[in-house]
Amino acid sequence: MAAAQYEPRVGDLGHNRAEAVRWSQSAMEQGARLVVLPELASSGYVFDDEAEAQRTAESPADGPTVGALRQLCARHDAYVIAGINEADGGCRHNSAVVVGPEGLMATYRKLHLYYNEKSWFEPGADLPIVDLPFGRVGMVICFDLWFPEPARALALAGAELIAVPTNWVASFKRTVWDDRGYCQGDYVAMATAAQNGAFMVCADRIGEERGMRFIGASIIVGADGWPVAGPASKDAEELLIADIDLDDAQAARARTPRNNLHTDRRPEAYRVSEVPVSPVRA
Questions:
Q1: What pLDDT is attached to residue 282?
Q2: For an engineered disulfide with 95, which of 10, 86, 216, 237 has Cβ 3.0 to 4.6 Å away?
Q3: Residue 142 bears catalytic tag
C-alpha cells in the first residue's frame, strides 16, 4: 500500500493530473498494488469563487483524471484512490474515486463538509465498499475521520482497509504537530484503526493555497492501531509504502481469545438513562 504526499496546485488541472500519475507510477514501480492520493488532488482546494470551483470539476465516468489513472493501473495491474472535484449534474461533490485496470470502480462523496467546502459542494449519502483482489476497501475523506460512525459502518460491513484522502490544515488548531511530528489526524486514524480492526491509509498534502497551510504527516496505520509507515514530514513531498496483509484485520479484531471488537458489541445497551438528581438535604 502507498500514500502519496505532495502539493497539487489549485486550478492547474494539467499539472495536477500529471502529478497524480507521476506519484502513482512511482509507488507502483516500487511494488504498491493500491495507491492513495490526497483530497481534491485533481483540482486543488482553496477556490476563489464559484466559477473556479465549477471550471475545475470533472465527471468521474469520463473525466481526464480517471482516464489517465486507468491507463496507468492497466499497465501495472494496480489500483488508485484519488480525491477529485466531482461534477454531478447541477451540483458538485468532494469525492474519492477507486480506479483500476478496467477503469472507474466506485465513487465516494464526502459526508461531512469542512468549513468553506460548504460553499462549493453538496454532501454525499452513502459509503461504498469495493472488493479488490487483495481485500475489501472503503473510503472516507478528511473531516469524515472525526466522526466515528462512517469508519465503524465500513468495518462492520467488512472493510479491511479504509483509505483517507485528506487535506489536513493548520487552521483552527491550538496544536498543529506534537514534538514527535504527529498531527491530531494521525492519532484519530490510529484510534479508528484500533477501535475497528481496520488498516488506515491517510494521504495528506503539503504547501499553501491562498493563505491556507497544509500540514503533511501522512500515515499508514496497521489494523492493531499502530503505525506501519510514517508519519511523513510536515512540509516535504514524500511517498509512504508499507507491505501489509489485509488478512491481519481479522486477527486484530480478536483482541483476546475471548474478545472480538465486532462480536462483543452490544448496540441494544447503547442507550442513555437519565438519573434523577437527589434533593439536597440541609
A1: 66
A2: 86
A3: yes
Q: Residue 206 above 90 pLDDT?
A: yes
pLDDT tens digit string along 18-44?
999 999 999 999 999 999 999 999 999
Please tell me the distance from the alpha carbon of residue 257 to that of residue 272, in angstroms, as a whole number.
30
262 residue type, one letter? H
In a domain, 203, yes or no: yes
Evaluate whether residue 88 is within a structural domain. yes
Which position has the grid cell 468532494? 94
Instruction: Round the average pLDDT of the chain to a whole number and report it.
Output: 97
CB atoms closer than 10 angstroms to residue 51: 9
From the candidates 110, 117, 183, 238, which is the catalytic residue? 110
- What predicted TM-score, i.e. pTM, was given to this entire model? 0.95
| Residue 67 belongs to domain with CATH number | 3.60.110.10
Domain that holds residue 137: 2-269
Q: Is residue 280 included in any domain, yes or no? A: no
39 is catalytic: yes
| Catalytic residue (one of 73, 86, 117, 142) | 142
93 domain-assigned: yes
pLDDT band at 281 (very low <50, low <70, confident <90, very high): confident
Domain count, the chain: 1
Q: Is 73 a catalytic residue?
A: no
